[in-house]
């Protein structure tokens, strides 16, 4: 990265297979270098960098001052020893870091890749790959550089990549080569390929590329869709060839991995301010003493010259004073000791290790321990006020489980007694060999019901096994893998599978199942697909007997309206069940069926076909057609799916909000889903005063909605206050009182009705700065992404903020990654609060980076978030330990450390100031120079470090038990300017005592042999000893947690002081260096004097007694919560009465929502079909376009097992050459239902969610990615050298038949970029299911469902 | 600072749940569970002291009860010490040394003599220590303090002829190195004091003043050493020059005792041990107790004969002569006793006050529950 910058590239020209030509441009090679130094440059560069630190430069400056004899009041080594120590430590750390960087660079640079050189494939190291080379990639290989895809083993130059390392998305994406090159095929052709690419210069935009390929006098437009970026992994593609466009540092990956933003903690900033103040103070003292010196030199010094002449260059008192100023700057510099910064780093490092070592933050399932990836932020963890959390993967596991169902008025899956014995998990295998072993269900009555052949139950599961858009893959007999586009569907189909209705496979026209062991095949007549408006989907199937039946599942709200009137009674019962489920935070769906006669079907089929062919308002017509047949249905029952929260999420959120931390959920998910999760993790409760939903589309409406919400809040809180004043005191008891957790079992009955955990009593109102601060009552705000976009505009910011901050819970749904970051920035800017962002996906990276603290959930979604984060662990619930235990301790320790540190240095240094008044302001030090050198680095460093690393005020389980203990950190109570001044004052007081007590005692005192004690050396030793003892006693008072290490440090420091002093004052050292160790004998002769010890004892008492009294009074009269907790602990220990109030016991009982059903019943119903479900899938299936089963194609690397019909398909593959099979998105378009989302938003303008979905559904990098038009369009005939951009409409003619017109319409403008958004969205939808099934199926089977070459069944 | 966050790990796809460490199969098998040690889990057994009434209040009382008796003891001891001090600077016109003080110049060769009469009201029983005291004399000035060469004083030959730069401007004189060099040595206190007791019949009895044993043992035996041992000091100091203000060279400081000459002259050593404060006293002579029955210095009239060589008036200094007896705790020191009594009383008083406050306003209850 240090290579010389050439003049910035205007454009890049790359000619394939022509190294000479390309070398003219001196493009960067593919060798990357992230290391900073090499062996030779290390010392100078590192030192140069280190001296860019202000502190280091300052000490260097001091060092230089000390070399001037007229100024030097201290020997040079008093500064150089600590400075050298600090520089060495830092240098060692830098060197180690750089060593690892070298190693990793080497590893990457030495990876092998196959380069096509002169028609032959040769293995080359990555670093030797040049721009313009053609390299071959094989499956599962990393892409070595940014490549232009030339051709691949797959038809039509398609290939699949996984971009997890680039943007964190684990789903696969499709890339396609330009059609001309895709035919190059083999190596010989490729090696003669001499096209020239002209494109934009290197940049960091992952989702954009524009360039042109010139070949054989033709121009071809290149887009990002043709590019394979470094960092991607090739998947499901046997091999592909690519032309290197950008290499090494020019690649988008490297361009994106810029400097990580250096985060500083607020303590850091405060510390820097204080250090500046101290400098100011230092200068003031210097000035005072210099003035004193001027006066003294004029009044006394000039007369004293017969004994003590001025130094030669000095000829007047003013110059003398000037020099004395600098001399005093030197000796007083210890108020800001260099060791401060090093000690802070050491302490933080220690805290980081404790985080890494914490077993309670170790997840045994994924074998991941928590990791502090930065060591500089620990104490800020104790000050967090806002948490911004992602939903999927962070709060939830993104695993759906079939939890309950209601069949024909009977509810199943109810766990009767949450406290009772754990019910046994059902074992399905004896009954059903095809069962999925991972499936959990506990209610055996349901299984019984299936076994006895209850018709309703069977029909229920039959519906689940038929009415869906899941694809299956059967690698070997019985080993089924489902690929569902939403995890919900997967869960339902899996449930059916386990209860004996196994969905085996589908063709465009049939569905094969195994029902209770017997194979069955249904003819699939139609799929009435899901969309946001309909909120339901249906299939119409004909069974073996020829009976036609429509199966429908959908949101209860829409479905229950469409039932046959005879269902009234059942509807009521089911509705009650649904309410129950919803209250438990489950996602519900209602199921129904309708029998159709042949005539009905024929008639509807006809009208449907009409609607389908319609050129205008097709969507509306289709919807109407669907509506027409989804009537008079018979209710079967309802399902309840649990969006599995991560373990302990509600509890964690409860504890955190008791700790006064506000939690905002920022999710890309839909509003319904987000709200559902909000309820299930108890962020939202039915007890909330009001939940506001902001979903306006215009600035005005958003503003209005916000205003209305605020007015309502004020209004409600006023009435509420009024009511409260009227005497609702009783409420207080119902809530868990102040410190939070439940008081034993006493309130059991009450707690049953209250949500768990109940909200804390409204916090004591802060001083009313404005009305909004005084809002009492619990409000929640749910804001949609598009509204948020308006709310984040400059003039709305404050309005949004004041509304949002008055709410207890805020959920932002459908937000883009950028918006996530913006929200964080907003709070950072206006609230001056410490923010923490937690997330697991690439879409969280921006917010993780912009928050004060970023936490990555390691595990599910790639490691982008983790890499960007400051802390990482694998479970959301560890957050409470991270904040309430580690953060709190870190903050406490750091504050205590800083207080003490400033104290001890002021006590140490200010003695010089007082002495100045008695030594003619001559900058004579009070202490021996060795003492000054060693005081900070030896005598007093370890005890305070030990305290800073190990101190605990209350044990960890206590701080979880009393989340209120966290508050001092948020309010910044433990170390702020006031505390700082108190420390300073105490330090100065101590210095006064330390100087004047020996002064008063020793000035007239003498040894027992008559020798006066008032000589300088005795005075120095006495003061120094008193100082060391006083600060040791003080640290003893400050230390609240005396481990062995603390003892060793405190006693060891005292011991080392005496040992070193005696050594330095020994005769042997003096004999060697008489000039350096002139304190010979002082220690001995001083410390043998009882008067000296009496002096020290006196000084110590005078210093400590007031502190002791003050602390005692503070504890006695105004105890902090932590003091009280500590105290009660002591009392408890004394009583030896173990009280089982450990938080663990109280909470762990309620492991998951389904068990601890403490939610208030009968709440708002939050209905189901809130899937990450996208429409259009049904059409894909019926059209058969997605069934090419590239998976089979891919099966060349996977097992070649595939169900029979697929093989047939493959054999027929030749049929229409036109289909560009692999590209799954294509069919969605072909089949006429235009790319679902973009279209629906335009057609069904009312849908509020859709526009955003495009952005959030796909990862940021991908959302504007152009999809090659040809691929999707089943581009016909593919005239080899036809312009890629040729109108596609005609291309469809051969096969598109019915859909032709719509397709044309859909591509109207046909600019390649025009409709790509939607395509990629579909593509996401198809590949993007990140559910567990996909993961278990392994990478090979990960392949996208592919497009069959068949024309659709419907056609 | 081109640190880039990019590293190889980012390209290593296989991170089996492990955040950063490129998880190979071997790593996956090994559990990364942190060790369950008390240290790593921060569960080290620890003493957790709390300031409770039960510990703090007794502490105050104990401090009080220890300090007050010590203070009383010190006070009594200090009061039993006899101390007599007389200022002989000669500031006032009527003081005996007025003329000496006025007419002094360093160039005078003949000493100016003056004598001061004084009366001891009470006898001094034990050994009496005779001090000279200087006021407003900044022996602790930085430039003064460092203006010496300890190597030279340690008898180092090379330092003798080539003293340290610190000694400037008293380093060389007429091309010859000054021995001992530096401002401290140069300003050696050179008044001579003699003490006479005037008995009842008016005769002056010389009181024998012992001049040995007035310096620190380490100074006399370790820190200060004559170049080339103690034989033939004159030869040893050849090639050096006496300090500017001195009347005689360093090897001639005590003509009466050859072992008290050169750098190991005790008066010189005492002077070289610089004082911490501008007002100080230095041990001059010791008057040893002769017989058990008679006091060392009986009460009565005394005469102090001064050969006034040391000018202090120019910088408004004062010179004193102090006679003092000594106890186990050294000389007279009323401050220490009073301070101890005061601190002890305050502690006791604080203890009482805190006790009252504690009883009246204690907000901590003694139960194991935390009040709301």
Structural overview:
The complex is a heterodimer of chains A (1355) and B (372). With 1355 residues, chain A is α+β, with helices and mostly antiparallel strands. Helix content of chain A is 45%, strand content 14%. In chain A, α4 packs parallel to α30, α29 (878-916) packs antiparallel against α31 (941-950) and α35 packs parallel to α39. Chain A is elongated. The two termini of chain A are 59 Å apart. The model of chain A is unreliable at 727-769, 1137-1174 and 1185-1355 (pLDDT under 50). With 372 residues, chain B is α+β, with helices and mostly antiparallel strands. Chain B has a 4-stranded antiparallel β-sheet. In chain B, strands 2-10-6-7 form a 4-stranded antiparallel β-sheet, with no helix packed on it. Chain B folds into 2 domains: 54-81 and 331-362; 83-326, no CATH class. The chains are: A alpha+beta (1355), B alpha+beta (372). At the A-B interface, α4, α11, α28, α34 and α35 of A face α1, α3, α5, α6 and α9 of B.
Q: Tell me the β content of chain B.
A: 15-25%
Count of the domains of chain B: 2
| Low-confidence sequence ranges of chain A | 727-769, 1137-1174, 1185-1355
N-to-C CA distance of chain B:
52 Å
Question: Over all CA atoms, what is the radius of gyration of chain B?
Answer: 34 Å
Strand content of chain A: 5-15%
Strand order, biggest sheet of chain A? 14-33-32-31-15-27-30-29-28
Relative helix content of chain A: 40-55%
The coarse overall form of chain A would be elongated
- How many beta-strand segments of chain A? 33
Task: Output mean pLDDT of chain A.
Answer: 75
The largest contact between protein chains, plus residue counts on each side, is: A-B, 147 and 129 residues
Report how far the terminal alpha carbons of chain A are from each other.
59 Å
Largest sheet of chain B: 4 strands, antiparallel
Q: Which stretches of chain B of 5+ consecutive residues score pLDDT under 50?
A: 1-28
Helix content of chain B: 25-40%
